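Recall from the previous lesson that a structure prediction takes nothing but the amino acid sequence as input. Here we apply that procedure to THAP domain-containing protein 1 from Oncorhynchus mykiss. The sequence below is the only information supplied.
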Amino acid sequence: MPTLCSAYNCKNRGPKADVGFFSFPKNDPERRKRWIINMKWKDWNPQHHHRVCSIHFEDKYICRMDKRQRLTPDAVPTIFDFPENFQKKKLIIDSMVCLFLICLTLDRKPIRVSLKQYYTLSPILTQITEAWEWLGMDIRGPLPLTPNGHQYVLTLTDFYSKWVEAFPLRGCSSTEVAQHVAEVISHFGFPFGILVRLKRKFTSKVRQNIFYSFLYMVFNFILNFDHGCLHPNRMVSDLVKDHPYNWDVCLPAKVFSLCFKEHPKTKQRPFSLLCCKGPQPVTTPRDLSVSLLFSYS
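The prediction returns the following tokens.
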């Protein structure tokens, strides 16, 4: 099998004349860490078969002896073809995952984007610079049935400020979910889109209900996006554990506590980032094209 370079946007394959392929350092943890950082792949741990080709090293790091290239003991890859405004925290999606971009319009069908290698969501998604640009949506359940007939929880989370909106649901009704999403958007404004990990058919019904019944405007959903690291999942689990029979009654207080408490990542309160420092609500949908959304190596 050919040797492939693991660097972003590099097409080199070996064997290739005048191009060397080098393994990641094994006995030098500090230098290995610098290699990984410079590659800018998020949560990526190179395996024994991963290589970096010689074009990513400065000449001072390469020794050419007997038609074979070797690296100096302090060699670190520093030359890459990253796009402008590329940030270190780039989201890597496994090759088996498929993303679906759902545009809430009357005549446009869902666009399926198949990922055959490593694909990255472009800076419009990963470089979140303000509150309420991208939200994560999830539904937890079925949970213990409450006297009010609730069995599910709908959560909407702002990726930047970590602000959470949560609603108890009696069932997984697309109409009920659409109503709550429309209420949140009416209050806080339009984000670029909502990242969800719900079924495609259900999400399509939600977007149709939002369009026909509430907003009458286009809107963006991205499916199969795993945002399980967000706080609401833990919040719901703790809530059901502490209040198994009336968790729906205690839900507003739990959400209030979460939004007014310092977040471990941002070191600030979600309320401060969204309501005190956040931008003015956007009253119309934000434009988002497929060409801007996806890039690949």
